[in-house]
Write a structure and sequence with these properties.
Blueprint: H1 2-21, H2 25-36, H3 42-61, H4 67-86, H5 93-105, H6 108-111, H7 115-118, H8 129-144, H9 152-157, H10 162-187, H11 192-212, H12 221-291
Helix pairs in contact: 1-2, 1-11, 1-12, 2-3, 2-12, 3-10, 3-11, 4-8, 4-10, 5-12
Length: 292
Amino acid sequence: MSTLILLFLGTILSFWMSAISGGGASLILIPILNVLLPPSVVPFSLTVGTFASSASRIAVFKKHIRWQMFWRFVPSSIPAVFIGAYLIKYFNPVYLQVVIALFLISNLPQVFKQKEEYKKPTKVYPPLLLPLMGFMAGFISGLMGAVGLLFNRLYLKYGLTKEEIIATRAANEISLHLIKLITYVYLGLYSTTAFYLGISIAAASIVSSLTIVYVLPRISELLFRKIGFGAMVLSGFLLLANTTVNRAEQEIETTNTDNDRAQKNITAQKGIESILQHKHHCTNQKATYFGH
């Protein structure tokens, strides 16, 4: 019970930060859930919470949704979710987490940009960029359970306001979360503990969405962008550190398994040699007996 309470309070803070920065609560929660759950069911637990978060944010910020981005982003992301979720059984997400962590850390220079630099004209992106980003978001989300701040830079560079980023991201991701939940259950990638932790995250995310409306108007666009990029960098370092620890633990576990297997082989070999020696001894005794 104490673990659920701590996770609940930590999730509220994470989703407040997520709303202010445009995303990222899930990447902040991954290191926490990795301690509480097996890696294979962490995506399910995250998705239960993030689905509730997206639904509550749509309810609060629905008038700010940029539907043009929605219709370019979502169609390509849906099939990618199935691919990512299916590959969980065959692909170690640790390697992908390292790549994502390094990408997030690479946004460090954006944190130190001045107000004038943010006022430069919004860059015109090619029409195919949003469908491509939708596919990548779906694939990574299906594999890891969340993309969070990974595509925050895209929203910020597209010239959206802070309310539009929160609303459009929620609209883009809610269908992905629903598909992921169905897929994880179908593939058996869930557990009772993961469900309860997900419910705790969901309840905290709803509380966060209902209360952040009183905080967001007090934050300037410049501060919003700096917090957004800063959260990306921080999440990158946290994810990299957690991934490094998990990889080291996997190496130790593999080494111990190999050592145990080698020890069993040695023991078995000694047993075979002992049996052969015993048979050889018995044969010699019989030969000696009949020789007399």
